[in-house]
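Structure in, sequence out. Go:
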């Protein structure tokens, strides 16, 4: 007696066993099985709607013992009701595949169509129900059945969403396991590429370091330092020229008004540029201006000081020109030497090459990390939890946990 009860309980507790690698097909079959039943129900209701329409059309209104005017009103409402019902039937486009997205779209569309039907036929229904009660009640019952099926399909769609997610996870695991051999070969190739790139990286780095420590590069650094010094010196010389002329600018402007001169005007506007073209003519103008100040032909707050400054400037003008040109020529000579030296260009190309190698190495390393073997245990455990959430109480066999 007790053995019989134990065997009975054991039988009740036994779960359906499904092989892990047959699980995707099993889920597809189960999902479609539930939908098939609901779709069959809707097909049946669709046919019943058509019979309802035929019965309503066949209903003999003329035999009813009511006024002729009332008969005409009921006939008109019956025709409108039947037309709307047949339209509803045409809009029941049943889903052809077990997809949660398709089912949800179908349920939403049909629910809207049924709500629209109820709104449009409410007045027809109340006008006809006293005379065509049975046929209308059948239609009403079929609408309730359709609504119940839609609710069931919506629940199925929610379950199917979970099932589709499980199926995608299963496909990922299947693909991962199937591609193991291919992935191993790819990893070997990637490791080979990574080693080659690291060797290339080291070679380029050594070439850059060798270039930076070479005598030629040291000489280039010296030239650049001298060039910067000459740039500073040239600026100092130009500022000195501008300063000297600014001290006598007031006297020279007054002199230029009495003795117009393009050359003097050029010196007043930009003394450095004018000095570069000096031929000796400005020396004479400076001397004449000094004489004019000295003789008080030009108003001056300190004629003695301005006369002295003009004479000094006249006497050293050519020396100032030679000095300025000498500094500029030295600067240009250094700039040409630096320009002719291609070491920095070589260094920049090597650095660009190094950056390219490091980018490729980083990408290769990322692919190596992504392709390394991993355990699928967590994926399989997540699939098990999703199965329970979807209502599948089954025993999964042969799961490749390692």
């Amino acid at each position: 007696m007790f053995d019989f009860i134990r065997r009975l309980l054991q039988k009740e507790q036994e779960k359906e066993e499904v092989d892990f690698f047959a699980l995707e097909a099993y889920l597809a079959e189960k999902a479609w099985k539930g939908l098939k039943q609901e779709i069959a129900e809707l097909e049946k209701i669709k046919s019943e709607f058509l019979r309802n329409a035929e019965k309503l059309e066949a209903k003999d209104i003329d035999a009813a013992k009511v006024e002729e005017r009332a008969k005409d009103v009921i006939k008109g409402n019956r025709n409108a009701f039947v037309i709307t019902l047949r339209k509803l039937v045409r809009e029941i486009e049943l889903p052809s595949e077990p997809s949660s997205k398709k089912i949800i779209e179908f349920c939403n569309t049909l629910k809207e169509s049924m709500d629209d039907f109820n709104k449009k036929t409410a007045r027809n229904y109340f006008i006809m129900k006293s005379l065509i009660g049975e046929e209308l009640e059948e239609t009403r019952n079929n609408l309730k059945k359709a609504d119940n099926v839609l609710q069931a399909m919506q629940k199925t769609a929610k379950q199917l969403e979970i099932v589709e997610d499980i199926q995608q996870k299963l496909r990922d695991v299947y693909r991962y396991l199937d591609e193991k051999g291919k992935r191993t070969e790819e990893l070997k190739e990637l490791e080979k590429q990574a080693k080659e790139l690291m060797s290339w990286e080291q070679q380029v780095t050594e070439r850059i370091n060798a270039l930076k420590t070479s005598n030629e590069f040291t000489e280039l650094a010296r030239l650049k330092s001298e060039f910067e010094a000459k740039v500073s010196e040239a600026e100092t010389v130009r500022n000195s020229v501008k300063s000297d002329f600014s001290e006598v600018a007031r006297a020279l402007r007054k002199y230029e008004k009495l003795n117009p001169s393009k050359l003097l005007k050029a010196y007043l506007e930009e003394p450095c540029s004018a000095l570069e073209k000096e031929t000796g003519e400005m020396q004479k103008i400076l001397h004449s201006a000094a004489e004019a100040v000295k003789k008080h032909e030009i108003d001056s707050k300190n004629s003695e000081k301005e006369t002295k400054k003009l004479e000094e400037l006249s006497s050293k003008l050519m020396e100032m020109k030679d000095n300025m040109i000498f500094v500029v020529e030295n600067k240009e000579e250094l700039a040409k030497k630096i320009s002719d030296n291609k070491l920095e260009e070589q260094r920049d190309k090597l650095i660009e090459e190094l950056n390219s190698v490091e980018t490729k190495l980083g990408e290769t390393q990322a692919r190596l990390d992504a392709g390394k073997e991993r355990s699928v245990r967590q994926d399989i455990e997540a699939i098990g939890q999703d199965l329970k959430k979807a209502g599948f109480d089954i025993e999964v066999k042969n799961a490749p946990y390692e």
